[in-house]
Amino acid sequence: MLNVPNQITLSRLVLAVIFFVILSQYSQQQPNTILLDCCVALFIFTAATDFLDGYLARRWGQVTPLGRVLDPLVDKVLICGTFILLAGPSFVDADGTSATCVAPWMVVVIGGRELLVTGLRGFNESVGVPFPASIHGKLKMWVQSIAAPTVMFIVAHQDTFLKAEVFAWIKIGLVWITVVVTALSMIHYIIHSRHILEGVDGRTPS
Q: Are the CB atoms for 28 and 87 separated by under 8 Å?
């Protein structure tokens, strides 16, 4: 079960924990650009290797139930943990405003969606029904993976931009797009999993 793709997935989990430890040291009251840039690079690397483990598993014929559960779990840990920290007190300016524009209710939407899909996936896998990610789920992951590091990068360098107001709007736009896409993805999974909610035999969502 612990083949190379699964080992890569576990390594991504370790990198996510390291990323959280570093990001939790940041404070908007005493901004550290280098620290935040390191977090951006580490997040991008951790998220990008999500492609590698899945590609190798399919190419080598090493797709396992553990991998199907562990891979999306690591994605959820990385995304949810990141947005929780971005909405936390570490990114609050001296005037009390959030430097990231990520509100706590937005984190609830993101986290709620991930908990719901994890529950649906776990139930399907427990009865032997595959629960692969749909195109909506993959789009959601791409949007989140682009928004999070971009927001961190803008926060780190917003004072050095010639047109800071433009980048502020980019930051707000990315955050709202992320929330909307995440919510729509959740609705999609609910619709295509109604057979579970209604107690009907499971089937793979389209």
A: no
